[in-house]
Amino acid sequence: MSVPLGIRQATRSIALLAALICAPASSHKGEPFVEPDFVPPAPGTYTLHRIMPAPEGRVLGVDGRPQLLSRYTRDKITLLGFIYTTCTDPEGCPLAYRVFGALKDAIESTSSLRDNLQFVTLSFDPARDSPDMMRRYAGSHVVEKAGGLRWYFLTTRSVRELLPLVEGFGQDVRISYDRSGARPRRELSHVLKVFLIDRMGDVREIYTSTFLYPRLVLNDIETLLMEENISQDQTPQK
Amino acid sequence: MGHKTILRAFAVLAVICLGFTTAVRADETCNSPYISKLIKGQEDYVYVWTLGVDGLGDGFDKLVTVDVNPKSKRYGKVVHSVSTGTQAEAHHMGFTDDRRHIWAGGLSDNRIWVFDIATNPAKPKLVRTIDDLGDKSGYLGPHTYYALPGRMLVQALSNTTDEGGETGMVLYNNNGKYLASYAMPKEEGGDGYGYDLAVNPKKNVLLTSSFTGSVNYMRPIGDLIKDGEAMKKFGNTMVLWDLKAMKVNQVLAVPGAPLEIRWSLNPQDNWAITATALTSKLWLVKQDAKGEWAAKEVGTIGDPSKIPLPVDISITRDGKGLWVNTFMDGKTRYFDLTDPEAPKQTYEKATGKQVNMISQSWDGKRVYITSSLLANWDKGGDDNEQFLRGFAWNGKELVQKFEVDFTKEQLGRAHHMKLGSKALRSTARGG
After folding, report:
1. Which residues in chain A have Cβ-Cβ distances shorter than 8 Å to B6?
2. Of A28, A61, A150, B229, which has the fewest Cβ atoms less than 10 A away?
3. Is the pLDDT of residue B404 over 60?
4. Looking at residue A35, what DSSP letter applies?
5. What does the angle CA A85 – CA A87 – CA A89 come to, to the nearest 5 degrees?
């Protein structure tokens, strides 16, 4: 017996809202989030286009083992963001980390969401961000056992292996040198982008700092889940 | 659990979410807020999208690079041009969000030319031609190229069926793959026409304006203005869209062909301004305290009875000032926008026998002006000056610093401009 689509959608809507509300505000490192300054469209009332396929490339997990990125961007809905661990721009990596953290709290409290989602944080500074460094950066967010949201902290072996990934995602990174001190200090500048990827590996939304609200991301996740349900319901029963 | 539960949930969420804001990232005052790599200092180049003219050079549309750094030995000189190999009424262009490419198009065509400006910012290279806009959408004459994250939203002016003014927007990804198209509304007061588009991400608002179709803009202007029926076929609306959903929220009556749209870049502001070509008025689109949007006529440009034809506007980065170019009288005017509900003209100068586009540097100290409106609307004889002129602005006076004569240089009709920098040369990315 299957639950009618409308009921499933309504149930999920309420679960998503409840999940976000029940997430303790204090668990978000830094200030709490405000609502967007507009009423977002309801989940399922808009289309998330298949913007592009997520690129493929070799990455390293916190255990140092090489894998293909697609191992972490397929079969579940994936939220992926680039960071570098020494980033201090408040509208850059720290913002992404906080948003991911807020979403993690919300999603983990709902098993139907937790089982359908995974997070990926990928460094674009392989020279400094070794697997060990990424493990330290991840702290308690690295989930080794079942039961928690899978949040993968990845880096690459070299710039050569990183390039196809940043190019493929369109994640712009520039290198500059701060020469104000005794020794030149290398800095990476970038515009924050977070990518929502569906189970098939297609990028469906790209968030910049102006649109990176936990509520909007959850709406988009729900929209993808509703799309999957519609697709399943339209599949002929055997 | 039902409606009340959801309402309560929203209320609780509103209480726990306090004090966090995200700023709108802006570019050199007229670009999409999603574009990275703002040029805050001295720009090195002005790229000029130029209409080809038979018998002038190769006669093709081309992207021309002019060196505009006063410290350069080639200051005020053409350093490069790259032709498209065709004439297509070259008009406007726009950066991709990563500022690695310029998309440029023509109004008599459906093709979009993509130039790489990152590999060598002095020498843009034509790397792709997108040619499926007409087949995929049915629209004609791509005009505005507006960067969204990973995508480009293109506003067309016309359609392939009757080449009239009913048109729409087309969404591509940055690799030129067609994603979707959106018709301009014809219901709830909409006229189906399009011209410019601009986004206020903070409000999730996309604002569009309206002009006319190919049958009008490709027609000699002398004939057009004598045709009363044709002159009725100009846009009289602006449309507020839900950007996320790409759905129409509200149609605003703005008579007289509202053209370029500029949102105030001041993070505290929630208004945009436009100029109407046929009625020579400034209109403000603003959200009131209750959250309702409205359009209001707030100023007059020159003497509307003489049809000065305002064709381009450029807003200062603080939203306190607006440059307006009027084609027919060749004047550049400055309006004080301290009170956007009551703009005051504080300066004017004849900057050419015909002037069209106007762009300013981020600091407002440099102003660039070109001459061409449309091939069949430009003036004739000695009045048909074709140029890029660079001016210094000290807050009181525009002082011309250089001129590139596009006829003498065998280039064509100078139209849209974008700024470039050597510092934006692409290097190996990543750490």
Report:
1. 13-14, 17
2. B229
3. yes
4. P
5. 150
